[in-house]
Specification:
Elements lengths: L1 H12 L4 H36 L6 E4 L4 E7 L3 E5 L5 E5 L3 E5 L4
Length: 104
């Protein structure tokens, strides 16, 4: 008696909502990952690319390694930094971490 009613109840509940029940959690996970991980990373990358393209001669910058210097020469992919009165170092443009304000 209990076996027949249990099979009937289990059979009616898993018919139409099975696909939606499987796909919905994956869609929700993707939406959460997009807003928490992907979108902020894209925004950060866009800001960094804008900063790198706005670099010009005379800007004070810091490299990824922590070296402070002033840009003496700049091309599409190479930056020459003046570290002190004598020393000039050549870096890849992507190795610039951030620009330092002249006020600071």
């Amino acid at each position: 008696m209990f076996g027949a009613s249990f099979d009937l109840a289990a059979g009616t509940g898993s018919g139409g909502g099975g696909i939606l029940g499987l796909v919905l959690p994956f869609v929700l996970m993707f939406v959460i990952f997009y807003f928490l991980l992907i979108r902020p990373q894209q925004k950060k990358q866009k800001t960094r690319n804008a900063m790198l393209s706005a670099l010009s001669k005379g800007d004070k910058v810091v490299t990824i390694g922590g070296l402070h210097g002033t840009i003496v020469e700049i091309t599409d992919d190479i930056v020459v930094l003046k570290v002190n009165d004598v020393t000039k170092l050549t870096f890849d443009r992507n190795s610039i971490s951030h620009s330092v304000n002249a006020d600071a």
